[in-house]
What does this fold into?
Amino acid sequence: MVNGSPQDAAPATRVRQVWQTLESVMDPEIPVVSVVDLGIVRQVRAGQDGRLRVGITPTYSGCPATEVITQTIRTALDQSGFADVALETLLWPPWSSEWLSEAGRRKLETYGIAVERKETGTLACPRCASRRIERVSEFGSTPCKAHYRCLECLEPFDTFKCL
Amino acid sequence: MSVASESARPAPSAEERFEYVLRLADTSLIAGQRLAELLGHGPALEEDLALGNISLDLIGQARLLLALAGRIEGRGRDEDALAFLRDAPDFRNVALAEQPNGDFGATIVRQCLLDAWQLESYECLTGSTDRDLADIAHKAVKECRYHWRFSSGWLARLGEGTEESHARVRAALESLWRFTDELLTPDALDARMAVCGIGPAPALIRERWETRVAAALAQAKLERPAHQHYPWHGKHGVHTEHLGHLLAEMQFVPRAYPGATW
It folds into this structure.
């Protein structure tokens, strides 16, 4: 084999390749951010038996996308030659919206989902950047989003909830 | 707390742990199923989504807890077997959780009383010596905080709203208050789990629940009803007639078509 299959690569290389594969797995509800951007993938590590393990954590206890996400990750790993990599669910530490990556935050904003700036606690309309906004509901179309309205451009928008 | 005192604690039996986890699991499951009945029936789109999201959280918590209970029991029952293949007397949820939705005011009052209890319970359970339970509690408590903001926020709005909305939440409070005694009155298992460091001290839950609910009632300009004797004991499998009807709907498909998948 010219380039070698993923099974033959050195452990550190394989871990990197697994991360790359996971970065291509998009959230089923917000298909612009990956499961890595969202902080759903917590770790990729070698177990005592030498097998690689991908540790994933659910966002909200009842998020209906959790099972689809697990299956999509499994399929992506299988198709990339990582059928031997195991998946494990980690409940601790509990998922936090602070784990959203900087790249993920930018992608969400471009997609039209506002993200609160933790440092300043500010939230702006993703369309016109106005800070004259009001919350319509702490709940939205998925567990991770809340519903807001811009008082400047009058458009409704979703925000990524702080949890 | 020193390590020595931790190791000196008595350890509960598997039966006791199973029973205790089941109480938490069933309360979340039944409350989640009740709220799921409202999908498409909320008074406004935002409230419909809110109640649906809260229902999902509760059912998600129930799944984690039922799966844990199944592992503790060690007889091969998974979360589905425990949710769908037990009869009413086997359920250990507090009876408040199974009370019908009634009008929006009654739903809000029930959720408020229950949310306060779940929030304080999970807050305490984050410090449980049972690591599995503590992990689930850490996750659940984050969700219970916004459940409480929703229900107590609506209680205040309805209580302070019109004469009609005030009268409705007051009537619901009078009718549901008798079910709160079960939340706050410990039995032998609650006491035993507290001694084992697994569950919170029952007196602590009562104190924190009373404080939280009293503040919400004051904001909603509602008077705390007088204490009422409580003759139902959902924790011991003695339920009101409402649970059987709820289970008939929730369990119909898996019972009619055993092992069905899609």
